[in-house]
Design goal:
heterodimer, A: mainly alpha, MetI-like fold, 12 helices, 73% helix, B: alpha+beta, Rossmann fold, OB fold (Dihydrolipoamide Acetyltransferase, E2P), 2 domains, six-stranded mixed beta sheet
Chain lengths: 273, 366
């Protein structure tokens, strides 16, 4: 603690760098809530006074609420489906030896790095070839591709963190695979499941490119916001809306991380090492 | 052999993992109520064999029978066996009571009945009142007892134990060995115990199978393994053993005559038939089978002259290393202190080694 070890020695320039880095990262984002309370149509300094007018206006517009409701519905469905698939995938990846596991995992994780516009175009071509009409369902299908890797990435440490012999013990004590899953596996990965639900919901809720390609006549919230940017008099309300989204996203992601905080350390307590 | 002697029957079992053969042609019969140990160093196949009894692995060929029933294709949750895992595998999200009662859910018992049974088990494992403790509030020894109770509450026909004492410190381990043996007598269940600790196996078991490279080298009682090992590998795995190169020079109804380097000519009663004149053999003698004497002993017993290279006083016993002419490795000798002999030994002093030829074991070289 006295800082004598090489690793723990305080490094003043590094600390300053870290603080500057965080400021540069988040200050632009903080302008949104700042100007959403500003009593002016225009985003510019100096600020002209505090108002809740833009927030108030937001609540009187049906189109906002429709778009929000669309996004919530897509988000919930995507979160539930991708987390369910994620649980099975994470269990298979961590528990079973199977041929071609490495490439399979790589392909599942690929959407994290492949530009979404590629997926958007590809899915659009595919769906129109199949004659599937664009709707919120097609948006949800697109979002599943992006959300599944997030779900698996959150869940794998949970599965790795608990000893497979705990599931074997359940089988040994007379429970079949189904009940072992309900009585042991799911409670043990439970925090990971909650974290995955929150994270995938947030990812789907914020996603724009795929929604843009794959939605029909019903816009999701990010699409609505993008549409409104053409109208200057709407802009402050959009700032207010964005501020709310930032806040809710932060809460969801942090809550998910907090619930899942014991992903590795909690498991260490579970077994004698 | 009665069915009781073949309560567990492992018949010509082979197990392959890919091209690696983990178990090769193992056949073992275990009696009802027996405390049976599988002993071997890591990678010898003992845990694989245990996991096949539990149903977590299936034999590649051969069969396993428990109480007359073939176990092939019977999944773990339907087998009449329960297991204590090496790391205990206590369910971390459940308290002690729910851990112990875990397997009872299938039996659809009333809450009061379950509580009664859990209470009995907590008494049996000497943890009364621990029902509401969380798994992570237990010490290693307590976890081990909970793992035992969780398995025993289902009254299995066989209890499988996978190195359950390995994670405990020495003192606790010795205490748990006694308790485990006592518990096994109380409940009368057949125990199959896996360990790499030969002392632990000797202390606990009725019979022991010594395993190496997937094969059973010898299956015998602790005394049998110690006094009559069948191979040099078994002899050196169990306790300390001195080996002397030798050659059979004669055999008759009374036994063998062997010329052994350092020991001279020995007439060893017993082993017949297996050896013929001219065979190269190892003569094996335990350290405590030697005695040290200050002058040439008279009488029947074998004796040889040597020099003490090393002497260690260990309280109730002393250990010596004695150099004999014609033997490369010094001979280990273990002598009880205070046994009446007033002969004192120090490093460098010349001594006579004494032994009884009946104590010598003749082994084939490997």
């Amino acid at each position: 603690m006295s800082g004598e070890s090489y690793i723990r020695r305080p490094n003043r320039p590094l600390q300053i760098y870290a603080v500057v880095f965080l400021i540069l990262l988040y200050v632009p984002v903080m302008f949104l809530p700042l100007f959403s309370f500003n009593d002016s149509l225009y985003v510019r300094f100096p600020l002209e006074g505090f108002t809740l007018q833009w927030y108030g206006e937001l609540f009187q517009r049906d189109a906002v609420w429709n778009a929000l409701w669309n996004s919530v519905r897509v988000g919930v469905v995507v979160a539930v489906f991708s987390t369910t698939l994620g649980v099975f995938a994470a269990k298979a990846i961590t528990r079973y030896r199977m041929p071609g596991k490495g490439p399979m995992v790589t392909f599942i994780m690929l959407p994290l790095v492949v530009p979404l516009i590629i997926f958007g175009v590809a899915l659009l071509v595919l769906l129109s070839q199949l004659g599937v009409a664009l709707s919120l369902y097609t948006v949800a299908i697109g979002h599943m591709i992006v959300c599944l890797p997030f779900s698996i990435a959150v869940l794998i440490p949970r599965f790795e963190g608990f000893d497979a012999s705990i599931e074997e013990a359940s089988a040994d004590l007379g429970e079949n695979a189904f009940w072992t899953f309900w009585r042991v596996t799911l409670p043990m990965v439970g925090p990971g499941v909650v974290a995955s639900l929150m994270l995938t919901f947030t990812v789907s809720f914020d996603e724009f490119i795929l929604a843009f390609f794959l939605s029909g006549t019903e816009p999701t919230l990010p699409m609505y916001i993008w549409g409104q940017l053409r109208f200057p008099q709407q802009f402050p309300s959009i700032l207010a809306l964005s501020s709310i989204i930032i806040f809710v996203s932060f809460v969801l992601v942090f809550a998910g991380q907090w619930i899942n905080r014991g992903a590795l350390s909690g498991s260490a307590k579970g077994s004698v090492s | 052999m009665t069915p009781q002697d073949r309560f567990i029957s492992i018949r010509n079992v082979d197990k392959y993992f890919g091209s690696f053969q983990a178990i090769s042609d193992v056949s073992i019969d275990i009696g009802h109520g027996e405390f049976f140990s599988l002993l071997g160093s890591s990678g010898c196949g003992k845990t694989t064999l245990l996991r096949m009894l539990a149903g977590f692995e299936n034999p590649s060929s051969g069969g396993i029978f428990i109480d007359g029933q073939p176990m092939t294709d019977v999944p773990p949750h339907l087998r009449p066996v329960n297991m204590v895992f090496q790391n205990y595998a206590i369910f971390p999200h459940l308290n002690v009571r729910d851990n112990i009662a875990y397997g009872l859910r299938r039996q659809k018992l009333s809450g009061a009945k379950v509580n009664g049974m859990v209470g009995e088990m907590l008494d049996l494992i000497k943890l009364p009142g621990y029902g509401n403790r969380k798994a992570n509030e237990l010490s290693g020894g307590q976890r081990q007892r909970v793992a035992l109770a969780r398995a025993l509450i289902l009254r299995p026909k066989v209890l499988l134990l996978d190195e359950p004492l390995g994670a405990l410190d020495k003192q606790l381990r010795e205490q748990m060995q006694l308790e485990l043996r006592e518990l096994q007598r109380t409940v009368g269940i057949t125990f199959v115990f896996v360990t790499h600790d030969q002392e632990e196996a000797l202390t606990l078991s009725d019979r022991i199978a010594v395993m190496s490279r997937g094969e059973v080298l010898q299956l015998d009682t602790p005394t049998g393994l110690y006094e009559r090992p069948v191979s040099r590998e078994v002899a050196s795995f169990i306790g300390t053993m001195n080996f002397f190169d030798g050659r059979v020079t004669g055999s008759d109804a009374a036994g063998l005559t062997v010329d052994a380097a350092g020991l001279g000519t020995l007439h060893i009663p017993g082993p017949k038939g297996a050896f013929t004149d001219g065979d190269t053999v190892h003569v094996a003698l335990r350290p405590e089978r030697f005695e040290l004497a200050g002058e040439a002993p008279a009488g029947e017993s074998g004796h040889a002259r040597g020099v003490v290279r090393n002497a260690a006083y260990l309280g109730e016993r002393s250990h010596y290393y004695v150099e004999l002419e014609g033997v490369e490795a010094p001979v280990a000798v273990s002598a009880q202190n205070g046994s009446g002999s007033s002969f004192s030994v120090s490093e460098g002093s010349p001594v006579w080694l004494k032994w009884h030829n009946e104590a010598a074991v003749v082994l084939r070289p490997e």
